[in-house]
Amino acid sequence: MFDYIIIGGGSAGCLLANRLSADANNKVCLIEAGRSDRNYLVRTTSPINMIFLMHSPLFNWLNYTDKQVNSGYRELFWPRGKGLGGSSSINAMIYTRGHRWDYDHWASLGNNGWDYDSVLPIFKQTEKNQRGADEFHGANGEMSVVDTNFRFAPSEAFVDACIEANFPLNNDMNGAEQEGCGFFQITQTPEGVRCNASLAFLDPILTRPNLTILTQSTVKRIVFDGKTATGVEYYDAKKTLHSVSATKEIILAAGVLNSPQILKLSGVGPAQELKKHNIDVIHDLPGVGENLQDHPDIIIRCLESSSTSFKTLPTKVMLDFVLKRFSKKKPMVFSPTDCGGFIKSSPELDIPDLQLQFAALRMKPHGEGLFTPARNGFVLHICYLRPESRGRVLLATNSPFDNVKIQANYFDQEKELDALVKGVKIGREILAQPALASLYKQEEKPGADIQTDEQIKQYLRDNVETVYHTAGSCKMGNDDMAVVDSELKVHGLNKLRVIDSSIMPTITGSNIHGPTVMIAEKGAKMILDDWQ
């Protein structure tokens, strides 16, 4: 018997466990399907680790979409983190929050208290920024946010090229203005260790006697007494069934794919879909699994002529990287995707609609292709931040051990293609600047043969990928398709909330980890205030 049960130990769940167990009178249970993140591969940062984690069944759910009509009829790889820390254990550690407009827009949809001025203090509360506290940043939180101190020459040149292409230099994309290019801050400690949600929020509290953490525990369903959530059934690593009960609340923080899956397996969701899988309907809630959003992403991949990028064969650059990585004199703070920015596809737009992310590493999407990084090169990611297309998360079966069906539905709206066509042209313009002239050898992909708008559009359809910024499948709001209200309580049910990136009514124009941590901090305060 517990006061609170948290399902999912990712970016949101780790913080929730910390905040709800801070009062010794609260008994808290955190249930995570994956294993502990206290592992060299997770906590140590290098390009090789990143590629491994992207395909590791130990730390990754390894999801694939259904074949996508507008994306070359391909099944697209959608990696999501599995284990304590969730996707913050496998991401590129870029810390961005989104634009002021994102949160003001949420509030305009009827979600009171979610405007930018209301959430900014919450962002600051979780943050331990190396630069110190100011109007936009906090220095006393648990999540370490730092500047990189190791940068490959192509990254330095790329930022210079952005300036030459007349994009403003921005040293703080989470400050007064989002627009501009520069080096990202990242979620690492000053010692160069990945500061995922587990290190930040769980490591300091592992000895709390009122906190129980269950790993390798797969939730079967949430148990209800009428319309009130009362407990959780889960399987342990040996697939033995157990049950736990909650006197106060159950909080679902399993992420954009698993939160709607668990709701549906528990009898909460579209009645027709539940009946199809022989699941008793507890509550007909048609929005569960709908409103799925992602930032469609394309890569421009180039060969590099100066041999100053990272490659996996022995070179002076690689040796220098390894020596500095393991030097005890000055810890290396590094991310492969260390620079980029937020820009507009057209000057008449009010806010940025494209994000650039640059890596001095020749790679294919998701690190596929073992020998791709064996040659010098670099990649420029371009993703569209304001998608209007909406996907779905559906049950494949009624077993909690089976991954969900994902319908990403990229490019249902033509404007997304149009914006990314402009993005590819802008990316090429930046890569052609004098700052990169001594490094740039040739464009491999899309390649010189892809030039017209229609050719670029077809290339986008055939090569679009996720950039891992997924949200929206249990959206917050008051309309018929909303799943939770502005206090993150599931509509029509008692003692059940969803607190993770799935509650976003519209996806933020940013990487997703920072906003998810903010959502958890705000959600934890709501819970504690209700039960004070």
Explain what you see.
- This protein is an alpha/beta fold.
- The protein folds into 2 domains: 251 residues, FAD/NAD(P)-binding domain (3-Layer(bba) Sandwich), CATH 3.50.50.60; 185 residues, Cholesterol Oxidase, domain 2 (2-Layer Sandwich).
- Helices cover 25% and strands 24% of the residues.
- It contains 13 helices and 23 strands.
- Strands 1, 2, 9, 10, 11, 12 and 23 form a 7-stranded mixed beta sheet that branches. Strands 7, 15, 16, 17, 18, 21 and 22 form a 7-stranded antiparallel beta sheet that branches.
- Helix 1 links the parallel strand 1 and strand 2.
- The longest helix has 18 residues.
- The chain is globular and about 70 Å long.
What is the level-2 CATH architecture name of the largest domain?
3-Layer(bba) Sandwich
The residue-averaged pLDDT reads 95
Using the coordinates shown, work out and report the CATH topology of the largest domain. Answer: FAD/NAD(P)-binding domain
Estimated radius of gyration: 22 Å
Structural class, from secondary structure content? alpha/beta
| Total strands | 23
Low-confidence stretches: none
Could you give the topology of this structure?
Elements: E1 2-7, H1 11-20, E2 28-31, H2 40-43, H3 47-54, E3 63-68, E4 74-78, H4 100-108, H5 116-126, E5 127-129, E6 143-147, H6 153-164, E7 180-183, E8 185-186, H7 197-202, E9 211-214, E10 218-225, E11 228-235, E12 241-252, H8 255-265, E13 268-269, H9 271-276, E14 283-284, E15 293-304, H10 316-325, E16 337-343, E17 354-359, E18 377-384, E19 392-394, E20 405-407, H11 414-431, E21 440-445, H12 453-463, E22 465-471, E23 496-498, H13 513-530
Parallel strand pairs: 1-2, 1-12, 2-9, 5-6, 12-23, 13-14
Antiparallel strand pairs: 3-4, 6-8, 7-16, 10-11, 11-12, 15-18, 15-21, 15-22, 16-17, 17-18, 19-20
